[in-house]
User: What shape does this take?
Amino acid sequence: MTPILKTVAILALAAGLAATPAAGEPVLVYSVGGKFDGSFNEAAFRGAERFAADTGEPYRDFEIARDADSLQALRGFAARGAEPVVAIGFNQAAAVAAAAKDYPQTNFSIIDMVVEAPNVRSVVFREHEGSYIAGLLAAMASKTGTIGFVGGMDIPIIRRFLCGYRQGAASVSPDIRVLFNMTGDTPAAFADPARGAELARGQIKRGADVIIQAAGGTGIGVLQAVADAGVLGIGTDSNQNGLHPGHILTSIRKRVDVAVYRNFADTQAGTWSAGLEVLGLAEGGMDWVIDDNNRALVTAQMEAAAGEAAARIADGTITVHDAVSDGECPL
Amino acid sequence: MTAGQLPRWVDYGLMPALNVAAAFLVSGLVVLLIGENPVEAVKVLVWGSLGWNEGIGFTLFYATNFIFTGLAVAIAFHAGLFNIGGEGQAYLGGLGVALACLALDRYVPWWVTLPFAVAGAAAFGAAWAFIPAILQAKRGSHVVITTIMFNFIAASLMVYLLVNLLSKRGSMQPETRTFESGGRLPLLQDVLPGTNFGSAPVNFSFLLALAACLLVWVIVWRTRLGYEIRTFGANPVAAVYAGISPLRITVVTMLMSGGLAGMMAINEIMGSQHRLLIEFVSGYGFVGIAVALMGRAHPVGIVFAAILFGMLYQGGAELAFEMPAITRDMIVVIQGLVILFAGALEHMFRPALLRIFGVLAARPAPAA
Assistant: This one.
């Protein structure tokens, strides 16, 4: 370890110490999508910003360009005494596992994946619980009996979201028809609003009158098409109700920001602990938003039904099937 | 390419160096524009990529990928074919490597798995280039169009296979199980005594890449097939007149090209990741085009160009890390400038150099 530490230290000196994070400074390493991806990474960024605003403490962040950068970044930060080192995204799991072994005194955290090590906190979300509520609300709001789903890249996390959505819709009416499309097979599928709009228009033509987007940047096009056609959309990841007021039924949020904030705040308070943290509806890791922009769209009946479903998911009387666990959706 | 009028060292050494210098000069202006010190930035970039063991290791690791994809593009160049499907061919090559490793890793040591993995990588990569090749040779569908379209088909096929068939259940990441020791190449520092690359993933495949360079050189310049490839590339009509089959040359060259691109997966999958995962190619296939252009489609040039791009990748990551004002998008700008000057503006300095060396050569008696 020492030769590496030495080289890193020399490197730090060569580069000028100004850029070096102070010991104990929290850091955030974003996933490949980049800091301003309009969803996942950006939510993490917002959590860190909120921490900085609340406490006045600085933090540092880093965007990796490819997975191979991750290990270097994590180790680089750990070598300079950063605490905690929070990695966003499942693709950094292998790097976190390796870095955590090399720097056992540093606290690491990974979002969206489980890494088992004595100095790693793993935070995973039950996205399917959030999308269950979305499906339930969509089915209740639909007049045609057909609702839609536009996903980004066809990967397990999006399938899990879809499966929860279908279960939620089916809980309202077994006859509900759920149209679903994935945008593509490359990461570009999360950044293609034109195709998102096209897929949404196709679903609207086939009768869908409520469409959820689970497609990052592509979803902006979905919601635009929905608003243009005068039907309803559902936002995800952040509060998108204000994008097209009166046309967004609700937004399902995955609170990556909360996870990041808690990591930073716990470290500052000295209460940080390693282990697995599973955040669903009950833990506030997933939620749905009602504000002035969508107040008129959500009836009291819908709100009560969603609230009841959330409560029953929280106490375990409803279990939402997780499509990632076995690759199947029971519908 | 119209070499010949210029001395070889100018064509292969001075001109690329001038191009890179021009690219760095313009990059320096961009760095200056965002309010950072360009000299400092160059220092971090060079130090980060060549100044310490682990940095060198990462540079060579990236260079290994670029050597394979660069050679793939270069060999097709010699036949006048523009294979821009390295991305998809490498992706499929990964499948070949993974299948070999998954089948054998629990039973045999790595050096037994390796030949099967190499065969798998080359065969799958070549197979992916075969259809565009045959379409070009028989139907005249241009490989530039078909190979790039095959990149998308490869992406869809691999996502389908990884999400539905090959991935472990319960994982968010579409990936196969991790290979056991029989499916892992040793690190370069364990093969070459006396070297130390820290925790960098540079591995045995670097030696394979150098061997591939030698092999390509022998095939292109020392065999009858290579002569036919170069003849066909220089003048397809004359080649036909000389009895060379366009069908055969097109298909064989594209198979070799695809096979070389597929070999990139040995480095990534068997050498570093130890599992097949989506999007592992992440642009190496495309950068291979720039590497081949810059290396003048010659193996030696490609090794140097690959190391330069390895430096840009590794040093660029260091730069983004050390100077937060220089984001990773800035690094892409710098890489783009190098590609622009070395690839697209390849001949920018040629007229001036021709004039200079024309004057110099005119004084002594012109040789040959």
Chain B touches chain A through 52 residues (CB under 8 Å). Chain B has a mean pLDDT of 91. The longest helix of chain B spans residues 110-139. Residues 124 and 194 of chain B are 36 Å apart (CA to CA).
